[in-house]
Amino acid sequence: MFVPLANGPPSSHDSPRLRPQMTRQEIEDAVASGSPPPVFTPSLRRSFRKDRQIISHEDSSDQQFNSRDAAQHQSKEAKSKEHGMFFRPRTSILDYTELMYQGSDRIRGLVTCFWTIVGAYLVSLLLSHYENNGEFLSRGLASLIFSQITDLILSDLGLVLSTAFVVPFVRVLWIGRWQPRFLDPRKLQAMGMQAVAELGWLVFWYMWQGSRGWPWTQRCFFALHTAVNWMKVHSYLSTNRHLAGDLKTQAELKAQQNPSKNVVAQIRTLDSRLCPYSARFPETQTLGNYAMFQLCPALVYEIEYPRTSHIRWGYVAEKMAGTAGIFVVFYIVVAHLMIPHLERMHEVGLMLTTVHLMGPMATCWLLFFFITFDSIANGFAELTRFADRRFYDDWWNARGLDEFSRKWNRPVHMFLARHIYMPVRELWKGSRGFESSQLLRRLRKTMPPSVAAMAATFFFSSILHEVTIVVACRRWNHGVFFFSQMMQIPVIILSERVKWLHDQQALRNWGFWVAMVFFQPFLLCMYTYNAFLPKTPSFNPVQTTSVSISAVNSTAAF
Fold first, then answer.
1. Sign of the C-alpha dihedral, residues 334, 340, 346, 350?
2. Which of 199, 226, 227 shows the shortest CA–CA distance to 212?
3. What secondary structure does DSSP assign to 6-43, as a single string?
């Protein structure tokens, strides 16, 4: 079963909200992330710790740690901080419920004011719709969303359960007693077998989706959930393949007679990877451990995650109510503010429709953020006692798509950073395969490793978007998503190379948001008007809008 973090190094990884004191660097980091550290009084700190305790890397029964544990902790912390992917107890910046648990109510009035205004506007909108149509809510979109819902739920359950094949896959082929001798997890054969298994699983579920005859909304949801589960499968297999290779290397080093100091140091380094805190690989490779990873709102697999001490069921109920409420608001905005304009798009034109949709589309985008990262992600984190709630950073301060991609969706960013960006960067730095081609040698000299890794990451993300949209829509739309993503690379490089533009932080932030507010509805109109309208005999704006809105929102989500 999954083992919570307990007997490990001292609690230097506790979140700033739990520390009595903070260093200058910690305060500067917190302010830079848009979350100034609250000032706790001793009584407030004691009451908060009593109400909500985090199981940190500190064991009250054993306050003394040997030098080996401290060295392992410092090594892992330094490496993790370098890549910015260390899991530690942290809260979401805009989670006002968590802030109130801490005794900070700085944004409580702002949140109350915002949702009060939204509620008042929705009441006015519903009354206007009743006066014009004789009903408060449009039921066309609802009939589409909830059609064949039982088949969708059962298929999605089968999708999630099928990912459990990774546990016997790892135990039998890489670390089991029946492991084939020719299959070394450190060799390319193991990587190839992993790729075949992942591709076969992905193709099967995409074909399953295509054979069900679902409407657009169900197919888009299933395609996105398939992509998310594939990322979990890939992270689990890749991480355990590397750990299995470390285990095999450690066994070979231990078999040496009279090992040198360097060999002993290598054994200790490998041991710190196999047992970072309390749990040890491969004992952690169980169905219970994988089930916990599947439920945790994380796409990067680790042997252990920081855990909270208990579940706050009131917090879970609040997040569930928030999810339902935001979904209702999302439905009203789409059905009453977007579909009527799309129905008249062929009459008024694409550009005018884009202007009409800028406000509603931006609202849908914000609602998508709140329902995904504030409600659903925090709700599952509470249910699984997952303590690292840093699902996003201050994306509203983004000055470009690269910064926005890092801050808007940290789970996906961490997946891309660990499994795409970092391997490509290391390959670009030290691989000798580039010496075989003169063109590759020149390209390697002119392009820094960070730029090559960024281009590879954008390319992979663009391919993933395009495949997801093609599968969901069953139509190739000339690679609009792919090219819209890849065209950001020269813009990013230009903004970094031109000193004057690089220094204009406020101007870049303004420019980014103007582009986001305009181009998202423009992209939606292109998919609706240019792709669906000319090729569909009977144009159904409800179906087209549903899949297109989900597709555009998924672009930001990935």
1. negative
2. 226
3. -SSS-STTS-GGG-S---HHHHHHHHHTT-PPPPPPHH
Q: Where are the beta strands (DSSP E) in 265-360?
A: 307-308
Average pLDDT over residues 495-521: 84
Nearby residues of 316 by Cβ (< 8 Å), 6 or more positions away? 379, 382, 383
As a whole number of angstroms, the distance between CA 548 and CA 144 comes to 14
**Look-up of token digits 């202007």:** 355
Does pLDDT of 85 surpass 80? no
Q: Which letter, b or e, does each residue of 95-132 get, where b requires 16 or more Cβ atoms within 10 Å of its Cβ? A: bbbbbebbbbeebeeeeeeeeeebeeeeeeeeeebeee
- Asked whether the CA dihedral 326, 332, 338, 343 is positive or negative, the reply is positive
CA distance 508 to 504: 6
**Vertex 366: Cα angle to 351 and 29 (nearest 5):** 125
Secondary structure class of 432 (helix, strand, coil): coil
Question: Is it the case that residue 221 has pLDDT exceeding 50?
Answer: yes
Tokens for 17?
Answer: 């909200």
Rounded to a whole number of angstroms, the CA Rg of the chain reads 25
pLDDT at 118: 87
Vertex 439: Cα angle to 435 and 444 (nearest 5):
65
For tokens 């599952």, name the residue: 380
Q: Closest by alpha carbon to 472, among 218, 229, 233?
A: 218
In degrees and rounded to multiples of 5, residue 423 shows phi and psi of: -60, -40
- Greatest CA separation found in the chain? 89
Place of tokens 């009593």: 50
Pairing assessment for the beta strands 307-308 and 54-55 based on DSSP bridges:
antiparallel
Instruction: Quickly tell me which residue has 């609040």 as its tokens.
Output: 318
Q: Exposed (0-12), middle (13-18) or buried (19+): which is 338, by Cβ within 10 Å?
A: buried
Q: What angle do CA 260, 262, 264 make, to 5 degrees?
A: 70
Which of 379, 394, 413 is closest to 556 using CA atoms?
A: 413
The two tokens of residue 552 are 């555009």
The whole-angstrom separation of Cα 109 and Cα 96 is: 10
Tell me the pLDDT tens digit for each residue of 333-387.
988 888 888 878 888 888 888 899 998 999 988 899 989 998 999 999 999 999 9
Q: What does 474-537 look like in DSSP terms, one character per residue? A: TS--TTHHHHHHHTHHHHHHHHHH-HHHHH-HHHHHHHHHHHHHHHHHHHHHIIIIIIITTT-S
Question: What is the model's pLDDT at position 469?
Answer: 75
Q: Which two tokens stand for residue 486?
A: 């890849």
| Inter-residue contact 301 to 316 (CB < 8 Å) | no
Q: Which residues of 454-466 are buried (b: 16+ CB within 10 A; e: fewer)?
A: bbbbbbebbebbb
Query: What are the structure tokens assigned to 524, written together?
Result: 């939606």
Instruction: Classify residue 68 as left (phi > 0), alpha (psi -120 to 50) or beta.
Output: alpha
Token output for 92: 């979401």
Sequence-ordered list of residues with C-beta below 8 angstroms from that of 244, at least 6 positions apart, any chain: 170, 174, 175, 185, 282
